[in-house]
Amino acid sequence: MRIFFTGGSGKAGKHAITYLQGQGHTVINADIVPSGLDVSELLIDLTDAGQVIGAMSQFTDFHELDAGTGVPKYDAVVHFAAVPRVMIGTDGECFRQNTITTYNVIEAAVKLGIPKVIFASSETTYAVCFADGEIKPDYIPIDEDHPTVPHDSYAMSKICNEATAKSFQARTGIDIYGLRINNVIEPHEYAQNFPAFMENPASRRRNIFAYIDARDLGHMVDCCLKTDGLGYQVFNVANDDMSVGITTGEVIAHFYEGVPQNRKMRPDETFYANDKAKAMVGFAPKHSWRDVLG
């Protein structure tokens, strides 16, 4: 597939692009800064609607001129570009950029007849991550039916983006899938960061004791690219196990006492349920911090 990928210069985007290229896809990265990857790139401001639709409808590399058959068409758009969290700039600017870029990207895709859009939503939509103080889940494990009423501008922007995507899908009928991505971990971060998580499990409370390996995130994007006909969907994206060394029972006793449990859980199972992604698009995460740290 030929894929227009936004935000490929970021942490998650770099790994996703590399994985998709390994699956044989042709990827064009649209970002405000270069990625450093071996990939065709267009450096654009995604808050400018004209630049977005222009980038999606132009040549991207010299070799595309050789066929003499006009601008190649895209098969899908993957939209990862965003201000990645609160407390980088102002709250309002985080909200503005994240909502307007998503609107611009999806609008351009549907107007150009691109049949599929995959966009990055977030674990923060469940309100736990950036809460002022502590907010406990309504129930565990958290699935896609859990209420999404966040209090911060980043998570608010992601909820607005989901509404935007759902509305465009209802109007056009194309496939638009939102990925509620958990804390993205690069391979080198297991040895670098996870020993501290073992020492202090409470440090993972805001991430719902979950994580997603950057390579498995690329796999999830590929699964969505290969699955057609689902209309509008959102998926939790996390690895199968928790990011701490204690058991689920110990996590419940220390952090989720009194929180309803909607099903029995395995001793090391993630509290960020990924069952829907497995059932509907064939998501099968392969990596774990346990493979590195034992």
UniProtKB/TrEMBL annotation:
It comes from Yoonia tamlensis. Residues 4-223 form the NAD-dependent epimerase/dehydratase domain. It comes from the Bacteria. This is Nucleoside-diphosphate-sugar epimerase. SUPFAM superfamilies: NAD(P)-binding Rossmann-fold domains (SSF51735). Pfam families: Epimerase. InterPro entries: Epimerase_deHydtase, NAD(P)-bd_dom_sf.
